[in-house]
Amino acid sequence: MNLNKYIAGIALAAISLSACKKDFLDRQPQTSIGSDNFFNNEQDLKLYVTNLYDFDGVGILNNDRATDNAATTGNAEIKTMMIGNPSPSSINSGWDWEQLRSVNYFLANFKKAPLSNEVLNHYEGIARFFRAKFYVEKVKRYSDVPWYDQPISMDNNDLLMKGRDPRAMVVDKIMEDFAFAAEHVNETGESGAVNRWIVKAYQAKFALYEGTTRKYHNELELAGTAEKYLQIARDVSSDIMKSGKFRLYTTGKPAEDYMNLFIQPSLLNNPEVILAVYNESGLRNSGWSETMFGNYEVSPAKDLLQDYLMKDGTYYSSQAGYPTFSFLKEFENRDPRLSQTYAAPGFNLLNTRTYSQGGGIYVQQLAKNFTGYHQVKGFVNDPATAAMQTVDAPILRYAEILLIYAEARAELGELTQGDLDLSINLLRERVGMARMPLNPAADPVQIAKYPTIAGSQINALLEIRRERRIELALEGYRFDDLMRWNAGKLLEKEQEGIYFSGLGKHDLTGDGVADIILLANNQSIPAVKEKNSVGKDFIYYRTGVIGDDAGVFLKNGTSGTVQTIADNGTFITPKYYYRPVPQSQVQLNPNLKQIFNW
């Protein structure tokens, strides 16, 4: 049974139930389904926990915005912080507790149902999984936060007015919840429902996050306990790998399989997918938008493109003159995932809803404040409404488990060639890439990016970080990775785009025929456009530097890389790795002290 069908069938009941989801800090439980007339059977428990589901959908494929993976013209909290003067009064989001109150209310009442211990433990595990998941995000954002494991009423002033609990204590509680859920949640269930493997995947994810955060953030004074969490990440990811339940998706088409994974109308039987949001016509609209392709707020960055290896496994950055390679040369003999993530020269555009040039071989559309690169990963290249509305969203992939395992082993100094062959090299094999050796040559570009990296296997660890960036590109992982690696300074780098050698005619499709003409800022686009050698009108752009009245900004005005923003601002360490408690909450509860210079 598909969980989305179940959700649709209980929608009205869920609306009634949602009345009990109030701010736990200042409201008593109020619900039209009270504890006295609810929690009577398994159907009640299932209804309640279904209301806790809060997984993202296809929107994750725009969540690398405002990192070194993708530029954005839209609002992003970190971008606003870095170019502004943030304070506890101006950063108001994130201090929400509705989900936690709902979980704790369930845990206080679910045992009223006359069910076996096995069934009750399953539902307790589901609830504790969502509590762990909730607190993971709070710890990432605030570090020290109040821990609550019961609903709070207005007359419980001691709990209501408590201060922040230490990160170490809260993380211990998170791991207790994950461990209970991993032991008791059913191994299988309906499609889209939380099962034991989903719990273990989140457990491994957070263990890696916490282990590396403690290792690389001295301000936490927890480095001595980092190894414990890295070992958990290693062991849990290994459990998933050894289970035999999952494998990488491949049909033997290395030039297509990676891209096709993200645009499937059904992921129900996909062996790589641990968790997906399933979308069905008439039940759940995916919310997918063709604006994912580019020129609407988010555009992929050159920095990410330059991290992709050559197909033979050598470093792209080892080639002389690579910063000034043309758009065509950038894609030559590269990791095949590049042309399955970025629109490469010769891309055949079929879904043309927002692009005036029409379908066919796509000519990169340039616009000021955008990189000129476009995203095909997750782009449904089909104009049919049904194709866009029903595309499923892979939220947890087996590929990530392989990456967690490899990184944890390398951080612990335990990585072997056998480990790589069980993890990184399976990812490379899918796309026909050269295998990663245990002792790769040092890449000066990667060393410069991560000056705090430490351990006995640094070169391998750098390549694993690269592999993670490439395999998970534009899926919303990059910001958290930079935060845990103490690499926030990389956000200061301006996100640049395509390089142009100068004004005049340029071929962007790779057919040997020029497609666009770049003009100086003081020139006008002619009313009657010149045609190229195959009889098509040239596309004209007036160039200039940021601030000019121009169609596209180039670094040198008439040449250089496409520019997106004048100044990315400053990432203040360690302050910007965390967020303040909103000032309004501190005024209500003075025991909530600010930390890390907020």
What would your notes on this structure say?
α9 (196-216) packs antiparallel against α10 (226-243), α10 (226-243) crosses α15 and α15 packs antiparallel against α19. With 598 residues, the chain is an alpha+beta fold. Helices cover 35% and strands 7% of the residues. The chain has helices at 3-9, 11-17, 42-50, 77-83, 98-109, 117-142, 157-160, 167-184, 196-216, 226-243, 257-260, 302-307, 327-330, 385-389, 398-411, 417-422, 424-430, 444-449, 458-471, 478-484, 583-588, and strands at 70-72, 273-277, 298-300, 348-349, 360-361, 393-397, 499-500, 504-506, 516-519, 539-544, 552-553, 560-561. A four-stranded mixed β-sheet has the order 8-9-10-11, with no helix packed on it. Strands 1-3 form a two-stranded antiparallel sheet. It has a two-stranded antiparallel sheet with strand order 2-6.
What fraction of residues sit in β-strands? 5-15%
| Helical amount | 25-40%
How big is the Rg?
A: 25 Å
Global outline: globular
Termini separation comes to 49 Å
Determine the structural class based on helices, strands and strand pairing: alpha+beta
Strand order in the largest sheet: 8-9-10-11
Say how many strands there are.
12
**Uncertain ranges:** 4-32
Largest sheet: 4 strands, mixed
Count the DSSP helices.
21
The pLDDT mean sits at 91
